[in-house]
Sequence to fold (462 residues):
Amino acid sequence: MRKRFAKILATLGPASRAPDTMRLLHEVGVDAFRLNFSHGSHEDHLANIKTIRSISEQVGHPIAIVADMQGPKLRVGEMGEGLELRYGDTVSVVRSDDASEGAIVHPHPELEKILKPGLVLKFDDGKLQATMISETEARIDVPGLLKSRKGINVVNAVLPMSAMTNKDREDMAFALEHGADWIALSFVQNAQDVIDARKIVGDRAGIIVKIEKPSAVEDLDDILAIADAAMVARGDLGVELPLEEVPVVQRKIIRKGRELGKPVIVATHMLESMIDAPTPTRAEASDVATAIYQGADCVMLSAETAVGRHPATAVAIMDRIITAAEGDPILWEYFEQTTLPHESSAEDAISRSVETIARTINAKAVFGYTRTGSTVQRIARERPPCRIIGLTPDAGTAARLALIWGTHPVVTEDPASFEDMLGRVRDLAKGVGLESGDRIMISAGVPFGVPGTTNTLKIDTV
Fold:
């Protein structure tokens, strides 16, 4: 069982897909692995899934698998040797499958439909910028060389396209077939995108919405109401929003996710310099700590573990940064002072009580019986200063809980009686590192095994 509460999500790639490396990454801190379907074949991803499940069996506890969909990424078309964009010049922007001399070409009919005067286009992760002065011509604002297949970001516009491409649908079906625990949906624009994904995913996996477009920020409440988790995808978000707004939006998303009891992952450029360097910059270390101080459930490594030279070291350093931040009493004072909305339900009453009782009796852990994971997530959003042991008979629920703040999932059968529950928990307590005399709490629903019936909170001693 980890000593820290926030989780680490690491991206797999050429630098980390060897089974021994994946096992090492888990040992030094990885709680969940991200499969990036923008790269690699289905055979590659299946091999990774099998390795993760094998490691999970070896270590005796679940590891979450996040399948990250590519989404409808807009890209320029074939640009030959590249087009030199000069400041102030006027350049044609046309839809074409072939290169056109002196013009920016793209293959997207959806983009062609919304081009109008005043619309801002950014290229190559924001390195270049142009403003449309007509439906087919743009003025260059930020110059440079535009090469083939570089990304296009449309600022402050909702594209008439779904967050799922045909490729995404095929990738999603493959990931679900092979047991992915979470599906990350890229370039979500509004709540309808999540509704469309839910029709495919159902309850077979949790849906993570990647917030990387301003329109998603504007529709955040409706999107998070129906999604299961959120990711602050700061790469594209930082291209389409002014840079100074990204930290504000990050904090807003984390706050809203916690209010709803839905985990929030902070991603992109967290320890970027460690792609090559053996240590991060001081600013990067501060960035990771800031996410923890804001209440993030999870922080993510991308290229650092996918293609970086020091994947295990990056994880170990991130683990150290999180642990240091969580050792600061100021963090726990912030959690304690934050006012959260509560529902008039037994589940919320118990979840709220767990945090208060944990501080009062110095409890070391709360054991929460759950079938769907909802009770444990409601407990986690309260940020109790003790471990959360998620007990469930469902292996899929257990794996999803591996991404939840402070939660150590355990697959176990529902108890037959109250006395059986106490006996099982006491046995399990020793298996997760608790000692005789430690005070614990047990949250459960009576009758046992019925979803949505959490109505009991028991204080006990190991």
Notes: Residues 119 and 132 are 5 Å apart (CA to CA). The longest strand covers residues 454-461. The first helix runs from residue 19 to 28. The chain has a mean pLDDT of 94.
